[in-house]
Each structure stands twice: as C-alpha cells, then as structure tokens.
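Section 5.1 Outputs to date
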Amino acid sequence: MQSVSVDAVMLESRAGELAGRSIKGETKRTWIDVAISCIDLTTLEGRDSPGRVRSLCAKARTPLPGSDAPAVAAVCVYPNLVAIARSALAGSSVRVASVATAFPSGQAELSVKLADTEQALEAGADEIDMVIDRGAFLSGDERRVAAEISAVKERCAERHLKVILETGELGSYTAIRRACDLALEAGADTIKSSTGKIGVNATFPTALAMCDSLAAFFRRTGHRRGLKLAGGIRTTKQALGYLAIVNETLGEQWMRPAAFRVGASALLDDLLMQRERLRTGHYTRPERIPKD
C-alpha cells in the first residue's frame, strides 16, 4: 500500500471552505435531523453506573418527548455496561456500541484486547470501537497494527467494527491518511478520529483527510466504509460543518447512520434546541430535554 503525501496548507484551506458554507432553510432542518440520527450518544466516565446508562438509553430512544425528533444511532458504553444498555434499548432501533481493546490507550497485549472485545460481544454489543496501538504505528510497526485490527474484526465477524486512530497523536495529516488507509485495508468497517480523551480530537481538516481516504478506498474497491468523528463536537454549527465536508467529498449516501457517526454527549441537546427554534421560532424549554 503506497503512502499518500498530504499538503497541509491545501487540506486546511479546503476544509475551512467546506465547513464554513452557510446551511439554511429546509436543508438546515433536514441536516439537523441527519445529525441527530447519526449520533453515538456516549458515556465513558469513571462515574458511569447502571442508572446513568439507563437514563442515557431513554434519551437515545426519545431525545425530545412530544416531538418527532429521530432516535440516535447508538449508545456507546464500557463493556461491563453493555448488558444494561442492551436491556434498556430492547425493541428500539438504537444500537449498542462498546469501546474495547484497552481503551483509550490501546497499550495491552493482543490476548487482552481480544478478551476485552469478546466480553463486549458476549454481553450483546452490536458494534465495537477499538483503539489502535499508536506507539506501534508511530514506530513503524504497521504490520502489528494491521494484524491487531484484522484479529479484532475476525472476532466481530458480522458485527460492526470502528477503528479509533486517535488522530491528535499521529503528528501530521500524512500520518493520519496513512493510518486511515491501513485500517481500511485491515478490515475496519468504520474509521474513527478520536477517543475524546486527549486534548486534540476531531477537526475539520482531519475529517477531510479521513473522507479523502474513504473516497479513495471506495474508488479502488467498490466498498463503502464508514466515518465516525468524536471529541469536542458540541454545537450544531460544528456538526453541520462536518456534514458539509461529508456531503461534498463522499456524497449523500454517506449521510446516514450506516456510514456516518458522531460520538458525542453534549451535542444532542444543542441540536434539539436548534431544531425546535427552526420549527416553532422559539427555543424549547431546557426542562423538556431529558437529562442523562
């Protein structure tokens, strides 16, 4: 697999132009619903409890009671809370995702990573969000990184595998593009930007670099793989900027939960507030939005 060199200046300029486009009227209303339906509503904190997960799942199923706002795509939790989420989401369209493979560092032996994955799968996870070993990648041991992705995908079988690259630690857009290409070739169903646990998470240029990799993979193989952005995405304006990048570079077929996700917690509330303002001319009362 040949490395692709990325021109940082051109990438950042193009990303800024795409993300800065004004989205108005009916398109804005439609895209807000797309964004809601593509959210992985996430709680990955040390204080997570069964009660907190049940509350999050209730909000995932019905983000704004009394409205026609769509359900989110998935709820993402730690492996030990998958069974709680599975039970709370029974009968709904919302999927259960679980982080695995020594999240967030990825620093563990493969046997430990596979056991982590199997725990989540046996508890009922529909999707696995694995982290790559960035130390191995940055030291040039790409074969190890690819082998671990392939091994986890083999365990997942038909269940969906998202591969977290932790782009904020990779050092350059060229390295990010290389990690994307490697993960896709190794079997990732979705490439994911970040864990949300470091200072630098998803950015518009990073999203564009990832989209370019997905587009190239689709042209080369005919297979459509997914994109997940995570970390620091809190406002409707940000979400619409990312959707503009996806729409322009990958097309409308990627603007659905099967091919695009946003890992977030605070974002949903802002999307609901903006949705109600567009629908009624007024922001909804905060107490109408379920607490998680």
